[in-house]
Amino acid sequence: MAADPSSTRTGATAGHHQQPVLTLRDVHAGYQDVEILRGIDLDLHRGETVCVIGANGAGKSTLLKTVFGMVATRRGSIRVDGVEVSRDSTRARLGRGVVLVPQGRCNFPRMSVEENLRMGGYTLPRGAVAAGIERAYRTFPVLGERRGQAAGNLSGGEQQLLEMAMALMLDPKVVLIDEPSLGLSPAMQQRVFAALRALAAHQVGVLLVEQNAVQALKVADRGLVVEWGRVAKSGTGSAMLDDPDVRRAYLGLPA
Ligand SMILES: Nc1ncnc2c1ncn2[C@@H]1O[C@H](COP(=O)(O)OP(=O)(O)OP(=O)(O)O)[C@@H](O)[C@H]1O
To answer: Distance, CA 55 to ligand 1 centroid (Å)?
Structure first.
């Protein structure tokens, strides 16, 4: 068993004084005539990692897509640093500092690590690209070691770090990450969870969806349970890990 994860958390300190970087109030969204999100409320602070858990099909991915603008907000409010974005395009939200790292790998496999980072920063002015690449290598040193290697030859876990690094190129305020540990060995999953901490340490608010909820809650500052399109429960990562109902229903652990 690893050391107490609370001692290594990067998250914002208790009793947040600044305003949240991301605020959702009564957010409704869905597909055609099916409403999936039915009144989501959420606050995310800079430097904080919040993990969303829930049953299959509960709408976790839909939540991330709604914040990014890939799924329309039908009702309610989404604010980034106090600015309403719920009617904005994904491009406009990117401009506000919201980045989505979708499920699966989406790098350019035949291009080098460094070329991929440049692609991640293609909207940036030239000087910012160099700074972004530096930031990426400082945050994820293994990528610096592999900078000339084709992305497709990296291990699955390293490719996931590359996805995060491409998001970090944009100096984001909010990173939305869907299932970063999917399909990885347990050792690789540990590296990815450690990388999430490194990402949040850039004063980024991280909203994470993870099947591997036990590991995710160990690195997250807070967890949220989504049920029937609403936040049914929320608390610190460790409170969620200790909650008998959460353990039984979502973590596959004895109550
Ligand atoms: N493009 C779409 N059109 C119609 N229905 C969709 C679409 N995408 C997702 N859904 C449905 O919306 C519901 C929520 O899906 P979502 O992927 O958000 O769930 P999830 O909680 O992320 O699930 P999982 O843990 O299985 O990934 C599911 O019933 C799904 O079938």
So the answer is: 11
